[in-house]
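Quarterly update from the structural biology core.
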Amino acid sequence: MMKTILGLHQQLSRFDATLSDWGGSMLSLVLRFYVGSQFFRAGMLKLGDWGGTLALFRDEYKVPLLSPELAAYVGVAGELAFPLLLFVGLLSRPAALGLFAVNLMAVVSYPQLFSFDCPAAINDHFYWGGMLLVLLAFGPGRFSLDAVIENQRAGR
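Predicted structure, tokenized:
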């Protein structure tokens, strides 16, 4: 009887671990695409009106230590490149860290976000930051090129 109970417990534990792994991987996939798409769209908008983007960086955004022009180039490059890495799950943790830095710089360099009547503007940045920290901590999951590369290295 005890052997049967232990066997059942072992099978349920394996099922639970598999379910947890697949569920976590699905969550990571959704987070990668959601947060990546937010930044990618912002980068495309800035790229589409480069003159307006430069004006924003000169007049509105106060990025410390960088000239407005360099800040615009670096910011837009980050908003376009890091999401692409997240979408395919390649170098996912560094990409999440890079987007976290872009997000943090947006909040630091545009303090008016805190004074808008609608708190959604700043709250979005907090939500995105939290999602990026989850990806940084838990990784991209099994539905990523990172997992494929790791499996190849491990010989699985």
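The chain has a mean pLDDT of 89.
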